[in-house]
Amino acid sequence: SILPNGGISVEDDGRGIPVDINKKEGTSGLELVMTVLHAGGKFDKDSYKVSGGLHGVGVSVVNALSKECTVFVKRDGSVFSQSYKYGKTTTEIEKHGYADSTGTKVVFYPDDSIFQELTYFFDVIDERLRELAYLNSGIKIVLTDEREEKKSVEHFYEGGLSEFIIHLDEGHKPVFKEPIQISGERENITVDIALRYNDSYNETILAFVNNINTIEGGTHLSGFKTALTRSLNKYAAQNNLFKPVKGKTLSLSGDDAREGITAVLSIKVPEPQFEGQTKTKLGNGEVKGVCDSIIMEGLTSFFDQNPEIAKKIITKAEYAARAREAARKARELVRRKNVLDISALPGKLADCSEKDPSLCELYLVEGDSAGGSAKQGRDRKFQAILPLRGKVINAEKARIDKLLENTEIQTIITALGAGFGGDEEIGGKEGVSVGGFDINKLRYHKIIIMTDADVDGSHIRTLLLTFLYRKMPELLIGGYVYIAQPPLYKLTKGKKIRYAYTDAERDQVLDEIKTDGSKIDISRYKGLGEMNADQLWDTTMDPSCRTLLRVTIDDAVEANRIFSKLMGEEVEGRREFIETNAKFVVNLDV
Predict the structure, then answer these.
(1) What CATH number is associated with residue 368?
(2) Which of 22, 325, 512, 521 could form a disulfide bond with 492, CB atoms 3.0-4.6 angstroms apart?
(3) Distance (Å, rounded) from C-alpha 168 to C-alpha 560?
(4) How far apart are CA 362 and CA 443, in angstroms?
(5) Do 448 and 369 reside in the same domain of the chain?
(6) Domain of 451?
(7) What ranges make up the beta strands (E) of 126-224?
(8) Is residue 523 part of a domain?
């Protein structure tokens, strides 16, 4: 529950935190859990099977960062409570009487001297709780907002991961109706996976460890991918499903096997080892083999029992393989065009002189006229300009070979210099993918999309983001992509010029400068091409005063659904989205 006075209340009907004295530590189990790092029973193999935390500090850190915290425990037929301030115990455990059930309730108020902004976003919390309910079928989670606009939502999904797949697949036509589900346990590792194929050309795979979304993947994801590819090739070979072409028998690659797949992998590991500071990649070596064997056996059995579904999947993968060969030839064409020869390409790159990628910026600019102003106004030392002609192909609807035939896509790939495709690492080298994308070769660490502030400009920006999200996700995950914010208005009074980036800012500037009744000219920019080089530099490109919006993926699940719904083939989902959200549009430039 989100409380009206800035607090949060979390209550469960579990067995309750132990309140009796821990003989080894000389204090109660409750106080130990609330005030000592790594003290929870979740880190004892014999007490809890798995932990859902990343650092093992959970509730004790919540307590330490709260100005007030009170815990109520129902256990052994009684109700107990203990209070804390700033992480320190302020009361002994108090007994309040009889309880006919068990559970724990924690009420805390974050320390506003640490958290400068204490705003709880209902939708963000709701989405995370929805995810947890999908991952733990049968559990009921209720979120209540007790602030001014009182509301409550309940999440309960008996279908678990299968229902999650259907939720993720909104906007796509499934190849078969019911998702495939596989479960198994080996070496104290529990593996659950659900998957289904749809009519798209993209893969959506979410991998969780102890309910934590491992957005960078890891050994569990590698095990699944290996099992999927092997099982499809094995079934196709045993049933002679591939016709030889020019004497060669087809073999599916991992990308072929995963084209159009939506999958959710959820594993439970007693002692997960997360890599990197962000802790979003699983490193346990033993997990890969366990996932591989359980999923391989499950898929093999499913295909044997459901030959029609197996044939549909393999037929789709075979088409992907044929397209992959065409794409390989197109990719080789792109690679043969050296970056130094990019001036021969339709979108002409004006490169910068700086050789350190971390200092370099690439502006993807809409149109030649704006590109001309940007080239003249830029700082040639570290700013490169790549004008784009026309609209980029929609990566949500296009197969990889068609993408690589698109001139603008070729130009972008060549300019970035990091290759193209895939997000599965190979050779143990961080950021190197099967498809050839190598973030270590990226020539610019700021990729700035600069388009007009109108509907066409927004469409071009969306198409570019769709391409980067689907085919170079490492750029978004790493925070390399930005959106330029050119001004909407130019206000001139005499020789003084002011710029405004929103309607509200325009009104504010007007109030500031209309003091003596002098004439004020207001110009509404319809496009970047209307600005001269100096104006573009002053308002949009000068690092000392420009505004850039960094594009990030905070919620991978929601990002995938939105891209699929708005950029995919299904019209109905897009219509529903527009009807639902049209009322929130404030300024539509049409």
Answers:
(1) 3.40.50.670
(2) 521
(3) 8
(4) 9
(5) yes
(6) 337-486
(7) 141-145, 151-155, 180-186, 189-197, 204-209, 212-213
(8) no
195-212 residues labelled b (16+ CB within 10 A) or e (exposed):
bbbbebbbbbbbbbbbbb
Which structure tokens are listed for 26? 């000389």
Rg (alpha carbons) of the chain, rounded to whole number: 28
Asked if 299 and 428 sit in the same domain, the reply is no
Q: How many helices and strands (H and E) does the chain possess?
A: 17, 25
Residue 417's identity, in one-letter code, is G
Q: Which residue has the tokens 């969780």?
A: 208
CB 294 within 8 A of CB 182: yes
Q: How many domains does the chain have?
A: 4
Same-domain check for residues 262 and 297: yes
Reading the chain (590 residues) residue by residue, the pLDDT tens digits are 999 999 999 999 999 999 998 888 788 989 999 998 876 554 344 445 555 554 456 789 999 999 999 999 999 999 999 999 999 999 999 999 899 999 999 999 999 999 988 899 999 999 999 999 999 999 999 999 999 889 999 999 999 999 999 999 988 899 999 999 999 999 999 999 999 999 888 899 999 999 999 988 999 999 999 999 999 999 999 999 887 766 677 889 999 999 999 999 999 998 888 886 667 889 999 999 999 999 999 999 999 999 999 999 999 999 888 887 777 766 665 555 544 444 444 347 899 999 999 999 999 998 766 778 899 999 999 999 999 887 788 888 888 778 888 888 888 988 998 887 644 333 333 443 445 688 898 999 999 999 887 778 888 888 898 898 888 888 988 899 999 998 888 888 888 888 888 888 888 888 888 766 778 888 888 778 888 899 899 899 999 989 899 988 765 556 566 666 666 666 565 566 555 555 444 444 43
Task: Please tell me whether residues 127 and 232 are part of one structural domain.
Answer: no
Query: Within 13 Å, how many C-alpha atoms sit on residue 376's CB side?
Result: 12
* CATH, residue 197: 3.30.230.10
- pTM score of the predicted model: 0.66
Give catalytic residues, as residue numbers: 366, 452, 454, 456
DSSP collapsed to 3 states, 299-330: HHHHHHHCHHHHHHHHHHHHHHHHHHHHHHHH
Clarify whether residues 238 and 317 are in a common domain.
yes
Angle in degrees, CA 205, 209, 211, rounded to 5: 95
Query: Within a domain: residue 416?
Result: yes
Q: Which residues contact 545 (CB under 8 A, 6 or more apart)?
A: 538, 539
> What is the C-alpha to C-alpha distance for residues 158 and 58, in angstroms, rounded to an integer?
28
Q: Are residues 347 and 469 in the same domain?
A: yes
